[in-house]
Amino acid sequence: xxxxxxxxxxxKARRGRLHTPKGIINTPAFIPVGTQASVxxxxxxxxxxxxxxxxxxxxxxxxxxxxxxxxxxxxGLHRFMSWKGPILTDSxxxxxxxxAPLRTISEEGVTFRSHLDGSSHFLSPEKAMEIQAxxxxxxxxxxxxxxxxxxxxxxxxxxxxxxxxxxxxCKNHKTQQQMLxxxxxxxxxxxxxxxxxxxxIELNFDGYALGGLSVGESKEIQHExxxxxxxxxxxxKPRYLMGIGELHDVVEAVSQGVDLFDCVIPTRNARNxxxxxxxxxxxxxxxxxxxxxxxxxxxxxxxxxxxxSRAYLRHLFISREILSMRLNxxxxxxxxxxxxxxxxxxxxxxxxxxxxxxxxQHYPGESQ
Length: 368
Ligand SMILES: [Zn+2]
Known about the structure:
With 368 residues, the protein is of the alpha/beta class. Helices cover 41% and strands 19% of the residues. Strands 4-14-13-12-11-10-6-5 form an eight-stranded parallel sheet. Strands 1-2-3 form a three-stranded antiparallel sheet. The longest helix has 28 residues, at 322-349. Bound molecules: zinc ion.
């Protein structure tokens, strides 16, 4: 279904191309999150204009509402939301473990209640694959158990072994049309990460993700785990760091050989008025922008920056105008995609290692 080529390496950093039937994804790539089959506030045409090549949608949400069968009847997720490019779906596991009340986990799967209406549901590895097949995403993820943080080493070990058995069952249930990525768990324990990676590699997935990070551990530990776990993954397959998208962390992970990232940061921040600029992050609601005539970011070519003043964007935000969310989201996503294209260029030119500090000079990392 797909082929991943690495066209240049700079240290451990990789510049690649992931070929899918729906188009090419240039890596390192940023995947915006479209939770409810919508990247909030933008049309697919606008999403594309930000430089986005692939989006993520959440299986848990679409399964509960409107229901995967309805989406399948309407021609699958691409047609339903009118996004023609590649789509990655998660398995639903993460949301079940983070959103749904009253979960019960067994070898067979997980029983949970809907956070919407309290109805009872059962998600197994097979069911997660069936739902993702109905949605028709290009990249599907295995169902994994996501243990809370902190968690005892013994519990993490048991959890990752269950995740491996579930991964095998997902693989057995995979359709020919979809790529399937395994998810390495193991918490903050290097030896458990290694065990998880080795067992998943034996199952031969189309790509490998690092899961269970950015759940409350310190940045230092997060970077250590990414640094020790990424090199364990097969060189020739895409590597995906799930749910991490702070620019500082992205650069750190790219330098360890990560290819794919998804995160709600640019879109969620946009709706809260926190905007990324080439001079650092600003909050547009601040008094100092009340009469600011200049553009949000003179170096950005998006519609928000070329057409409007900071004063107008502040006014829209303060007045809670819908246009505020639209322009802010357009800008933040454009900024993020530009940032990733700068990373790709640097790796391609072989200067990533020498410019990486400069890339995040205005984004030193928000320590926890
Ligand atoms: Zn802009």
